[in-house]
Amino acid sequence: MTMPGLFTEYKKSLKTVEIEEVFDLIFYRPLAFLFVKLIYKTSITPNQLTAAAMVIGVIGDVFFAVAIPFSLVIASVFLIIYDVFDCADGQLARLKKNGTPAGRILDGVADYVVTISAYLAIGIGYSLHSENPGYWWILVVAAGLSNAFHAISLDYYRNRFVDNTQDKPAVLVDGLDEFRNEYERLKKEPGKYFDKSIIRLYLRYSSIQSGVAATKNSTASLSKENQLEYYHRNKTIIHLWTYLGPTTQLTFLIICALINRLDVYLWGLIIVGNCYAFILYFFQKRIDKQLNLQEV
Question: Where would I find the H helices in the chain?
């Protein structure tokens, strides 16, 4: 395959470029794409890659609990491999067109599992090597809550951007119909208990979120002209929102681990990350007001 053809195929493996994180675009996804090309003709499925990514990520997190410089280097290597696999599952699904609703949910679950286990391991590692373990647990919990706040904010504005710039059902409201339809279809089939269970749990979890989104997301179904205006006014700030994303924060964690300064990572999320999020929120409200959007 020629380089232009390879690049075109790479672009097809991506999500909407404007909502991709920069470290994904320049590092993790190119590596993941090369890996996907190697396994493309095998029987490996996206769900198998997701499961492998989760196992690799959790193994890497365990080394944070050891809390010595060499173990932090090992943790960093495992987390880099985890993120490559985490990108590869979606890219494989998009190229082969064999992704499933259950697979997308599993991908999100894997991210939560790896993130939570990382914070637990960091807390264990610092508390075992400190005379003041309570301080470190407070710091870890505060950083974890900050991480969750950043993820929720990014997801909301990223989904809203997709809703209002692309001709497809709204992710924040109507997107759940795909999962409901898939669950109803699976109920009529024998077996597939895992897919049924994970979709049912996701629908229950999303019922509250979808209710909130239905009142907040009053900007869906914009006209073509308004979609274009929305895109131009939001294309820069949505890119800035992505710097609060999981890959950016994971890369920051890896760098801090390599220099044996996980405390810098924790304080960075709490102070810099939260200040950055509130500044973005202020400018986002100004943009929404200029567009006469009725948001929170």
Answer: 3-12, 22-23, 29-39, 46-66, 69-96, 101-128, 133-165, 176-187, 193-216, 224-241, 246-258, 262-267, 274-290
Considering the entire predicted model, what is its pTM? 0.83
- Summarised one tens digit per residue, pLDDT across range 44-94 is 999 999 999 999 999 999 999 998 999 999 999 999 999 999 999 989 998
C-alpha 119/C-alpha 64 separation (Å) is 9
Sign of the C-alpha dihedral computed for residues 165, 171, 177 and 181 taken in this order: positive
CATH number at 86 reads 1.20.120.1760
Has residue 43 been placed in a domain?
yes
Residues 112-146 have pLDDT tens digits of: 899 999 999 999 999 988 888 999 999 999 999 99
Q: Which two tokens stand for residue 83?
A: 């993120």
* Number of domains making up the chain: 1
Q: Please state, in angstroms and as integers, the Cα–Cα distance from residue 173 to each residue in 20, 157, 190, 216, 244, following that order.
A: 22, 13, 29, 10, 23
Residue numbers in the chain where pLDDT is lower than 50: 172-174, 209, 212-215, 217-220, 295-296
Is 66 inside a domain boundary? yes
* Domain assignment present for 113: yes
- DSSP secondary structure letter of residue 18: G
Cβ proximity of 259 and 124 under 8 Å: no
pLDDT at 4 (0 to 100): 65
State the residue range of the domain holding 130: 3-290
- Residue 117: the pLDDT is 97
State the pLDDT at residue 240: 96
Report d(CA 168, CA 166) in Å as an integer: 6
Return the closest-CA partner of residue 274 out of 242, 244, 245, 236: 244
Distance in angstroms between the alpha carbons of the first and the last residue of the chain: 49
Helix/strand/coil for 13: coil
